[in-house]
Amino acid sequence: MTLPKPIVIGVTGGSASGKTSVSRAIFDQFSGHSLLLLTQDAYYKKSDLPFEQRRLINYDHPLAFDTPLLHRQLKQLIAREAIDRPVYDYKNHNRSDEVVHMTPKDVIIVEGILILADEELRNLMDIKIYVDTDDDIRVIRRIKRDMVERGRSLDDIIQQYLKTVKPSYHQFIEPTKRYADIIVPEGGRNKVAIDLLTTKIRAILAARGLQE
To answer: Where does ATP bind (predicted)?
Structure first.
């Protein structure tokens, strides 16, 4: 018996926009179902450059990602095949040698800043979500996150934001908003948007015979 095609949900937006909060809210709504989260960050390209040069890479540019690998592994999951997802080390600014074995699920959430920039990736998604958050809020969140979780200095974070993060957001990320099916202001705090998404996902699950 062939299993129904999984639902693929894309969640995008600028750095620290609240993408993870939206993804977590969806997870909470479907806690009784089989879900997995595939993060675009895991697919940063492996670099042989010295550490100081890796720090200067524009990680918000489309060319920073191994998009063909992400596309290939997402297609494998949709085909109900397991994958070995790469792991990215934020402190070393490089992909590690470790992998995470992931088995197929009924609902696949693909999260990342540039997942809607690639047409082949977009075409694999059933629902495309753009999380829209003010620049000032995002930079404050980014400072807090990178200092606490990634061990970076305030000066390093600010320099990176001004040099690459902010310009790349307006050049590459914000324009992908036009591909979204739904734009969610305020991220996971927008309960109305989460409820609408939940209703739509349940309808697709029912149509494909993937009941909770």
So the answer is: 13-20
Q: For the chain, which residues make up each domain, given as ranges?
A: 7-205
**Which tokens is 185 given?**
């202001």
φ and ψ of 108, to 5 deg: -115, 120
What does the pLDDT average to over 80-95?
92
Q: From the annotation, which residues make up the binding site?
A: 13-20
SS3 131: strand
Fold category of 7-205 in CATH:
Rossmann fold (3.40.50)
131-143 confidence digits (pLDDT tens): 998 888 888 888 8
Local confidence band at 155 (pLDDT 50, 70, 90 cut-offs): confident
Is the model's pLDDT at 65 over the cut of 90?
A: yes
DSSP secondary structure code for residue 152 in this structure: -
Of 140, 148, 115, 151, residue with least CA distance to 130: 115
The Cα–Cα gap between 169 and 175 comes to 9
* Prediction pTM value: 0.89
Cβ(129)–Cβ(182) under 8 Å?
yes
Cβ atoms of 65 and 124 within 8 Å: the answer is no
End-to-end Cα spacing for the chain: 19
Residue-wise pLDDT for 23-35, tens only, equals 888 888 887 788 9
